[in-house]
Amino acid sequence: MDYHFQVRVTGVLVEDGAILLVRQRLSERRSWSLPGGRLERGETLAQGLCREMEEETGLKVEVKRLLYLCDAAQSGHTLLHATFLAQRTGGALRLPDNTKDENPISDVRFVPVEELTAYGFSETFQALALAGFPGGGYAGDKSAIGLGI
Hints:
Layout: E1 5-12, E2 14-15, E3 18-23, E4 32-33, E5 36-38, H1 45-57, E6 59-71, E7 78-91, E8 107-112, H2 123-130, E9 137-141
Parallel strand pairs: 1-7, 6-9
Antiparallel strand pairs: 1-5, 2-3, 3-4, 3-8, 6-7
């Protein structure tokens, strides 16, 4: 039996009422997302998030707390998706190298939370962001927090 299991981490970094987003082709309807990606062998969740955030945005971060732990039923295999609140500790905002990426990131920016729906995020996720991400923990499928739609 072939069993495929993945762990993905994404980071929420909010500064001055704006949330950090990256632009890369996700689907026909969405091209903006939270920075993050798959864990590499031997990484902890926090190490993976810090590495992905720096690779994709140039910013060094630390994990502040777990926001949501979700499944991703639409992925076609077992996928655990962990979203963390992060805080900047250094670095400078920049585009990633993209040389090894089949789906390159074309923009990195802070977007006012009030404008998230204009960037393809759901009203559910925008409402959670405006409320400070209440009710953390296991959320079931990530569509419950308005991601992956």
